[in-house]
Design goal:
two-stranded antiparallel ribbon, about 10% strand
Length: about 525
């Protein structure tokens, strides 16, 4: 069974044989008030406790159903709107909608053309929606994209049905045995749920071979694989930093990369959800296992490369529909910072649940922002002041002219000019530091350490240096950097899987053998 040490000594988890009897998943005998209980002697405690925690973290059945249905509808909406915009819109009609040329004759100057705008009776903007004929190559590409999108959506539907059914069963468990209803769940703490689970062990024998359950037993099983990722990061087996052309070495971890890493690291080496295969326990197999894992990295990377065009198109469309309006209204959003996915692995403690990590990083946000805001370039600040001055001056001029003559708002491209100047003004203001804030890099770093609990020695002695700022910025990155990483992830992820991570296969196999304790 798996075990983990912290950075110095790994803690051993309980044996899978202690917690998991040989029956198939689910429930066997066990009684409550003389009746059999379906929740007694659960075979796969890892999966069961993960479902219990997920139900708590997502705040009940209604929230889970609403979120999953929204994602399904969101996917259909994006595909349908994109289809209409690409192959079912008459842009000639749309861009000339409501306009008509009137020709007048002037004796002295010849012909004068005027454009008069009005609404055609009985017509609307929806008249621009009409399917046009497609070339053979366009039709093939369209059918292929719709086929891939349809297959993906059907797989998501099956996944959602399964997850909703699991959530429905867990809801019954919460109500019948934990005595917690969905209406009470948002006001409950995780410690309340754990306490109820511990009491259920006495009544139901959730773990048949162990008389008493503790909070550590439960959390170990929820975070078994997450602890592996943290340990690999701490030991430098997979530290999520890579050498990139032109920009050098930098951290890179996205949702797509995390999904593929878990697919490689935990599908083949583990015989079950909690038990490492016997062949990984023998050092004589290390070379052969490393070759097999290297091959797995390569083929999964190749599959990602084949699907790259479809995933990339989806990433672009999803980003456009999700962020375009926010950026238009609040362009300063791109200049704000957030904790990167790399930070959420690098700064995570062993056995730290998602909501606990989120709370800790949220508390560290303000001191981290104060630290990063203290680094400002004088030349960048001057350029920001110049840009905001010119953009602001032009904005106030246009606004004043619009007040004098309201017909100006109907002029060609006036809305585009307003939007461009507003975005320019807001973006440039971000570059100008607040003159009323004093910067003390050492004190700011100490405040960050209170919550982050990760300060290398050089960060303590040289927090004012550019080297430390760059290292910290990999943890606390600009949002626009995170957006670009997610956008480029379909291209970068398969390359890293095929040409970088596959060469770490022997180190990964050795890690499994050295730091997994079998009892």
């Amino acid at each position: 069974m798996t075990a983990y040490k912290n950075k110095h000594t790994y803690q051993r988890l309980l044996s899978e044989d202690d917690a998991h009897p040989p029956e198939h998943f689910g429930r066997t005998s066990g009684k409550r008030n003389g009746e059999r209980s379906e929740w007694s002697r659960i075979h796969d405690l890892d999966q069961f406790f993960i479902q219990v925690y997920t139900y708590f973290n997502r705040r009940g059945l209604l929230c889970i159903v609403a979120e999953e249905l929204f994602q399904l509808v969101q996917f259909v909406f994006i595909v349908c709107v994109t289809l209409v915009l690409t192959v079912a819109t008459d842009y000639d009609f749309l861009f000339n909608y409501g306009s008509k040329e009137i020709t007048e004759h002037d004796v002295g100057n010849g012909t004068i053309q005027q454009t008069v705008t009005f609404l055609y009776y009985g017509q609307s903007i929806f008249d621009a929606i009409k399917f046009r004929g497609l070339r053979e190559d366009e039709a093939f590409a369209l059918v292929l994209c719709l086929l891939v999108a349809g297959l993906f959506w059907l797989s998501r539907v099956i996944y959602v049905i399964r997850k909703v059914w699991e959530a429905f069963n867990i809801r019954r468990f919460y109500a019948d045995y934990l005595k917690i209803t969905d209406s009470e769940l948002p006001n409950k703490l995780w410690s309340d749920v754990v306490g109820a689970l511990v009491r259920c062990q006495d009544e139901l024998s959730l773990c048949v071979e162990k008389e008493k359950l503790t909070e550590l037993d439960i959390v170990h099983r929820i975070l078994r694989k997450q602890n592996y990722l943290i340990a690999m990061q701490n030991k430098g087996v997979i530290n999520h930093t890579y050498n990139f052309p032109f920009i050098g070495r930098r951290a890179f971890l996205t949702e797509g990369m995390k999904f593929n890493l878990k697919l490689v690291l935990f599908s083949d080496p583990f015989a079950t959800r909690w038990q490492l295969r016997d062949e990984y326990k023998r050092s004589s197999n290390r070379v052969g296992l490393a070759e097999r894992m290297s091959s797995r990295f390569f083929w999964i990377g190749l599959l990602n490369l084949i699907l790259c065009p479809f995933i990339l198109v989806w990433q672009i469309l999803f980003s456009f529909f999700s962020y375009a309006e926010v950026i238009r209204r609040q362009p300063g959003t791109l200049g704000t910072r957030r904790w990167s996915y790399y930070a959420k692995v690098r700064l995570r403690h062993f056995n730290e649940l998602d909501h606990e990590l989120k709370k800790r990083l949220t508390c560290a946000y303000k001191p981290a922002k104060a630290y990063m805001d203290g680094f400002s370039s004088r030349i960048v600040a001057i350029l920001g002041q110049c840009g905001s001055f010119f953009a602001g001056a032009l904005l106030i001029i246009l606004f004043s002219l619009t007040l004098v003559n309201e017909n100006l708002i109907t002029s060609d491209n006036i809305i585009a000019v307003y939007t461009f100047l507003f975005v320019m003004f807001t973006s440039c203001r971000i570059l100008v530091p607040d003159e009323n804030v004093a910067f003390d890099s050492k004190k700011s770093m100490e405040k960050v350490d209170r919550y982050v609990h990760y300060i290398p020695p050089v960060w303590r002695t040289e927090p004012h240096t550019e080297k430390v700022r760059q290292l910290f910025s990999s943890l606390f990155q600009y949002k626009v950097t995170g957006y670009l990483e997610e956008l480029l992830s379909p291209i970068i992820t398969p390359i890293l899987l095929m040409f970088s991570l596959r060469h770490k296969s022997l180190d990964i196999v050795d890690f499994y053998q050295r730091f997994t304790v079998h009892v």
